[in-house]
């Protein structure tokens, strides 16, 4: 495996990982800072490649960001499980993709919270709904999670109402339990959502996140988690608080991170993927989480076009790449991998994953970790 132009024979294949377990390590005494996520064990460089990151858990099969979704992803063998973090009014971190919980919980069915429906501007976007920062953790815990896209994933609605919104600390405890039971470390990929917006509200994400990581022994360079954000300043802040590896997320080339917009930094993602931008990111992060379109842009018909040089350029700076997001349904696949006319039906996800893996990416976020794991195993076998 070549990383940053250097051979790294220590990296295990995905097939090896299926036997050994990602980041496999013998566990110590139970307890927050001493068990599965402790200081022992290999670094992110020892993860199987391609690494399969379960996007919001196994969100293709269960309502996202629930313990049920995380559990299924882990049971499927996902190497890393993703959490998106937003704060509560009383400063707890909870796992939601948005602070607007209208679409992923039953909050609208709670008359006691009807008056909390409001309109806000979040990162320059006007949103109307219910927001985590207006609820205490105890209040949020009275809600139930539901499927975000029931029209596409009708089967997942079977699980609506089954799970609550998990606090991040609950997830850390779950990871400890699972780590002890499985005799290995449980890898997490933890994103700070809207960090500038929340800091302006007095609800900075990074300090409570760092405190929790320290409490559970996940703050070290070799701890089994990645930290990630679309706002580079959040990763720079985390770099001052903990040593855990950091990933800068990159949206479309024409976009500008929200913290850049607030700070008057004129750079766009197109600037950040140039050698100078990558050099800057490598000063405080270990990886990139680019949208897949930055690896292979699509043409006007939605088909895959010519790959960019981003993988090569990022590797030259020593950065790993975990692009997002693979999903099995036609509506989310490049046009050349759709099958039939039903947008909710599965297309040729294996074909698309193969093409993306061939670009040399180090991992991938997928809503369907079982599919991505099989594709990774196929890819590893063929090499
Ligand atoms: O964090 C990687 C990927 O999850 C980024 O997209 O919007 O699903 O958080 P999003
Ligand atoms: Ca995310």
From TrEMBL:
Residues 50-376 form the GP-PDE domain. It is an enzyme of class 3 (hydrolase). It comes from the Bacteria. Signal peptide: none annotated. It catalyses: a sn-glycero-3-phosphodiester + H2O = an alcohol + sn-glycerol 3-phosphate + H(+). The keyword Glycoprotein does not apply. Its EC number is 3.1.4.46. The keyword Nucleus does not apply. Keywords: Glycerol metabolism, Hydrolase, Signal. It holds the Pfam family GDPD. SUPFAM superfamilies: PLC-like phosphodiesterases. Gene3D superfamilies: Phosphatidylinositol (PI) phosphodiesterase (3.20.20.190). Belongs to the glycerophosphoryl diester phosphodiesterase family. This is glycerophosphodiester phosphodiesterase. It comes from Streptomyces chryseus. The lineage of its organism: Bacteria, Bacillati, Actinomycetota, Actinomycetes, Kitasatosporales.
């Amino acid at each position: 495996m070549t990383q940053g132009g250097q051979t790294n024979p220590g990296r295990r294949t995905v097939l090896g990982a299926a036997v050994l377990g990602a980041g496999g390590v013998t566990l110590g005494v139970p307890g927050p800072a001493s068990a599965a996520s402790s200081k022992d064990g290999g670094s992110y460089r020892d993860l199987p490649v391609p690494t399969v990151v379960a996007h919001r858990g196994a969100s293709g099969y269960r309502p996202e960001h629930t313990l049920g979704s995380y559990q299924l992803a882990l049971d499927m063998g996902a190497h890393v499980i993703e959490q998106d973090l937003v704060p509560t009014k009383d400063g707890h971190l909870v796992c939601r993709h948005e602070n607007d919980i209208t679409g992923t919980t039953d909050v609208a069915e709670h008359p006691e919270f009807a008056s909390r429906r409001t309109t806000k501007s979040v990162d320059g976007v006007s949103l109307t709904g219910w927001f985590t920062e207006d609820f205490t953790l105890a209040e949020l815990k009275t809600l139930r999670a539901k499927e975000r896209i029931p029209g596409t994933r009708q089967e997942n609605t079977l699980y609506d109402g089954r799970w609550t919104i998990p606090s991040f600390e609950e997830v850390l405890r779950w990871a400890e339990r699972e780590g002890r039971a499985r005799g290995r470390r449980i890898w997490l990929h933890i994103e700070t959502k809207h960090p500038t917006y929340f800091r302006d509200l007095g609800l900075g994400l990074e300090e409570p996140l760092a405190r929790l990581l320290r409490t559970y022994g996940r703050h070290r360079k070799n701890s089994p988690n990645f930290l990630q954000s679309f706002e580079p300043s959040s990763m720079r802040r985390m770099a001052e608080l903990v040593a855990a590896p950091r990933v800068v997320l990159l949206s479309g080339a024409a976009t500008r991170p929200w913290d850049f917009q607030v700070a008057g930094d004129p750079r766009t993602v197109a600037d950040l993927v140039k050698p100078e931008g990558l050099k800057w990111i490598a000063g405080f992060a270990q990886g990139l989480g680019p949208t897949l379109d930055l690896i292979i842009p699509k043409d006007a018909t939605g088909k895959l076009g010519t790959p960019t040089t981003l993988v090569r350029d990022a590797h030259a700076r020593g950065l790993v790449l975990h692009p997002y997001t693979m999903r099995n349904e036609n509506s989310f696949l490049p046009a050349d991998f759709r099958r039939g006319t039903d947008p909710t039906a599965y297309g040729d996800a294996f074909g698309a994953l193969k093409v993306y893996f061939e670009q040399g990416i180090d991992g991938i976020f997928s809503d369907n970790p079982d599919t991505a794991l099989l594709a990774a195993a196929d890819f590893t076998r063929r090499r």
